[in-house]
Amino acid sequence: MSVKTLRISPGGLTLEAAARLEREARALREDRAVRAVVLVGEGEDFCPGIAGDWDPLDSGLDPAAALAAVRAPTLAVLRGAVGGVGLELALACDLRL
Questions:
Q1: Cα gap 97→68, rounded to integer Å
Q2: In this predicted structure, what is the pLDDT of residue 49?
Q3: pTM for the structure as a whole
Q4: How confident is the model at residue 1, as a pLDDT?
Q5: d(CA 8, CA 25)
């Protein structure tokens, strides 16, 4: 039995971080050894939104949907700014603290 922690890089969600988060969430989707998933921001803020010049709709990525599909309970640990895509990620989790 284990708890897996997924981390959001400080300063907002970059394209690379979104791809990594989606890939990690998809890998956890059916992992029965994982009993819970905790999503945290690494900086002062959970996730203030998008960092850089990219459009989530054009990227083909949907880390929030991948996170919502994880079988284990998911918990977003919120602190600081939560905006845009950060709010979407938090709402994709089962619980928010």
A1: 16
A2: 92
A3: 0.92
A4: 60
A5: 12
What does the pLDDT look like over 37-79, one tens digit per residue? Answer: 999 999 899 999 999 888 888 899 999 999 999 999 999 999 9
Q: d(Cα 19, Cα 62) in Å, to the nearest integer?
A: 8
Q: How far apart are CA 33 and CA 41, in angstroms?
A: 24
Number of residues that this document lists for the chain: 97
Question: Contact, 21 vs 42, CB < 8 A?
Answer: no
70-97 burial, b at 16+ Cβ within 10 Å, e below that, comes to: bebebbbebeebbeebbbbbbebbeeee
Q: Which residue has the tokens 């690494």?
A: 42
Q: Which tokens sit at 19? A: 């791809």
Task: Show Cβ contacts of residue 44 under 8 Å, excluding neighbours closer than 6 positions.
Answer: 10, 79, 80
Nearest to 90 by CA among 3, 8, 20: 8
